[in-house]
Design goal:
Helix content is 35%, strand content 15%. It has one domain: Arc Repressor Mutant, subunit A, CATH 1.10.10. The strands form 2 sheets. A 3-stranded antiparallel beta sheet has the order 1-5-2. It is built from 3 helices and 5 strands; from the N terminus they run H-E-H-H-E-E-E-E. Bound molecules: zinc ion. Zinc ion binds next to loops.
């Protein structure tokens, strides 16, 4: 039986940390849909297993630690830079 998108995402994130953009390229689906699936995956597995490498500013190194939403911020609150490393997600075994 074919694997569902969510099963494939879980499998991929169990092997390496990936951003939503990387997932969307690998799976050939819209990044917007990746967020949707991730929200569900986050609720379906144990919270401790769902790890988020936070967004950071490529310009000044500011780390966005207090964000609850999965979508990355568009600007850095410290230097107003727009070069943001999007968060990466990882599922621990
Ligand atoms: Zn910055």
């Amino acid at each position: 039986m074919a694997k569902t998108i969510r099963q494939r995402i879980i499998e991929m994130l169990s092997q390496e940390a990936l951003s939503t953009l990387e997932l969307s390229v690998k799976l050939g689906i819209k990044e917007k849909d990746i967020f949707y699936h991730l929200e569900h995956i986050k609720l379906s597995i144990k919270p401790k297993k769902f790890l988020i490498e936070p967004s950071s500013c490529k310009q000044c190194g500011f780390i966005f630690t207090k964000r609850d939403r999965l979508a990355p911020p568009s600007r850095c609150p410290r230097c107003k830079g727009e070069y943001i490393q999007t968060p990466r997600f990882l599922i621990s075994q």
